[in-house]
Amino acid sequence: MVFRQAFIFSSLVLSAVLIVAGFRWPDINWAWVVVGPLLVLGVHDLTQNKHTLLKIYPLVGHFRYLFESVRRELQQYFVESDLDGAPVNREFRSLIYQRAKKDNDTRAFGTIFDVYRDGYEWLNHSLAPKECLPANLRVSFGESECARPYYASPLNISAMSYGALSRNAVMALNRGAKLGHFAHNTGEGGISDWHLEFGGDLIWQIGTGYFGCRTPEGDFDTRLFAEQAGRDVVRMIEIKLSQGAKPGHGGVLPAAKVTEEIARIRMVPIGEDVLSPPGHSAFTNPVELLQFITLLRKHSGGKPVGFKFCPGNRREFLGICKAMLETGLRPDFITVDGGEGGTGAAPVELTNSVGMPLRDGLHFVHNALRGIGVRDRIRIIASGKAFSAFHVLRMMVLGADTVNSARGMMLALGCIQSRSCNTDKCPTGITTQNPARYKQLDVTDKGVRVANFHHSTMETLAELLSILGKDQLKDLDPTDINRRVNQGNVMNYSQLYPRIDEGCLLHTDCAPEEWASDWHQATAYSWR
After folding, report:
1. Whose CB among 112, 278, 315, 373 lies 3.0–4.6 Å from 503's, allowing a Cys bridge?
2. 380 touches 345 (CB < 8 A)
3. Which of 99-108, 276-285, 300-309, 342-351 has the lowest mean pLDDT?
4. Which CATH superfamily is domain 134-510 in?
């Protein structure tokens, strides 16, 4: 608001001065009165490091901040009539920017939500709050199975590959992870030099293309895997079966982004679209998947290994559950991705209409593991649209042990959601391989902002737990969250997302009726 007022006031004053001066001294070229200050402002934009947008678009980039300030003031008046939720999304985006910059993130005048609208959710606070410290919220992975277990933050950076992101964006994310003591998922594009620059904890994701551990023919290479997985900064390994934004489609990296360096890291031809296969060649059924996980755990030196998928056909995951029972083999964690997840490039039909939404998928996976009696030995990571501590807590109530965020971390970097990720023309230098753009993203400053966002969110998560009268994540319960289903009906999460009994799938006659058909048809030796 201050910027807008100053801009308007100075424009009016300058216009008045120029008009008067033009009449008084008509022979002088008064255009320099305008051009001079603009040149000074342009030089300042090019030399500052706080705003990548201004470095790439000096002068004209200021209009974005002008429009942003006006929108923040006006959006409050239209929230209740905007049924698509856009103002609410902008509110969370503004929150992330403020926390990343350590600005004041409090709000005046009450909630922007219509609390009587269907779908509104809230927590049941306690009159006897406890003290909960962020340092006490870390979650163990692989403690019973692994020689090198990992103790993770409740919130970590979700999978985003180098190639999809620029080198400066990757370095800034990793620097933030190092400063904040949380994990950075590499995405399926392999481990680049930029992932290693600051020594932040890595979760190495291996997709169907086996980038960084593949033979020239594109098959999995055990020797190359062991070399990469042996790095101290690699704390866990994640096998990507599918991605929420494009399940069954494989990864897509446009040729414009395949530089010589990326081709070397991924071991692919330069200048060609990189299309990951839709399925894996290292295994062909649930039992072989678990055997592959065991192989990776062995050759990584005993680090936690799991897989990521977006639930679709229920029988397929139940087949993995049956494979666990038949072989005694288990993943250390399962990452559940929601169909609403983001991506840099995918067909519209896949982004909008394929894949189980995160809440439904998380509830299903959590229940399935309960049903076979192994939930306490397998961690669940939820991946999808986590902008605030409430979003993190909500996923945990549904069964997640930790949460991965991609969009929130990108916003902390300075992303303005221009939706040009697939064009190599990202205006903030985050999703581009164009040096003229990505070099303007200041790694030091943006890394601090990522750490700030994480730190503030963890502090607020601990505060929410305190307000609930709890001091540990394991004490969260589905009854802690309510949702207004309609004007006359409020239900808590235990009613909306009922849990099946522990071990109920182990005995055919005890399986819930809605599970019986899928459980009967599932097999450990075939996906179908």
Report:
1. 373
2. no
3. 342-351
4. Aldolase class I (3.20.20.70)
